[in-house]
Structure formats: C-alpha cells, structure tokens
Amino acid sequence: MNLLEKFNIVPKDRHLYDVAFTHGSYGTKHGLDYTYERLEFLGDSVLNMIVSEYLYKQYPDYEEGKLTKLRANYVCQTALIYYSHELGLDKHIKIYGDDSKITENEVLSITADVFESFLGAIFLDQGIEFAKDYISKIIFPYIDAKKVF
After folding, report:
1. Which is nearest to 95 in space by CA: 35, 135, 40?
2. Quick check: is 116 catalytic?
C-alpha cells in the first residue's frame, strides 16, 4: 500500500505530494525547481487553524493564553516528529546528503517539516474538510487523552 492509499487520498494533483517530501538538498542535486518549504508554510497555518478550532470548541472556559499554551503542545516540533514517525511519513522524505553533512537534529527537524508540508498538500489537493478529518484522526485523540509532548 502506498502512502496516499494509506490515508484514502485519491490525488487530483499527485505532484503536490512529490513536492511535499522533497528536501532542498534533493532538489538541488536533481535539478528540481521545488522543495517542500512552501507547502510546509501553508501546512503550518492549516494545522494551527484546525487545532485551534478544536481546542476552542473543546475548552469553552479556557482563556486565550491557556488555549495558546495547550495548542503549542500539539503543534510543537517534538509532537510533529512523533506524528511523522507514527504515520511513516519520515520513510518518504527525499533528501540528498551523506552522514557527515546532515546531523541527526536536522533530520528530525526535516521530519517535522514534512508533517506540515504533507498537510499543506492535502489541504490544496483535497480541501479543508479532508484536512480536518486527517488531523482529527491523528492529533485529536492525543488532545483528548491530554498527552504531553
């Protein structure tokens, strides 16, 4: 089963998903004019919006500061790395470099970035409702369980 099938995605634009996993080093090495960074930017905003809406509805008595702190726990780099590994997204990253050039911390950061870029691709390709459904299955259970990252 490929990654798109795993998430029941019938792509309208398969290229978006290729872009979502392409690190700059790979793009440079292979003469590509794209990387995942723009999708990461978009995915970050989509993620924050979806999680914010959920927290707003789940915790009607929480004030802004408490909601912000709570959201930060579920959208921080540590959480994104966790989700990315849990979903197997890290296995699809296209990166170029030998072990001496890319540190373990950089690889972890890239893994977090790819979670957001994949979400950005989902949002553009499938729409906001699909993106909400995707996030609801991945992140909302951790919010409900009050998991601390």
Report:
1. 35
2. yes
Asked if pLDDT for residue 99 goes beyond 70, the answer is: no
Tokens encoding 1 = 């089963």
The full set of domain ranges for the chain reads 12-144
The answer to whether residues 139 and 88 touch, using CB atoms and an 8 Å cutoff, is no
Q: What is the mean pLDDT of residues 3-26?
A: 94
pLDDT at 96: 84
Backbone angles phi, psi at 9, to 5 degrees: -100, 120
Active-site position among 40, 90, 116, 125: 116
Q: What is the CATH number of domain 12-144?
A: 1.10.1520.10
Inter-residue long-range contacts of 53-59, CB under 8 Å, 24+ positions, other chains counted: 54/136, 54/140, 54/143, 55/143, 58/143, 58/144
CB 74 within 8 Å of CB 51 = yes
Say if residue 84 is exposed, middle or buried (CB neighbours under 10 Å; 0-12, 13-18, 19+): buried
Catalytic site residue from 40, 44, 90, 113? 44
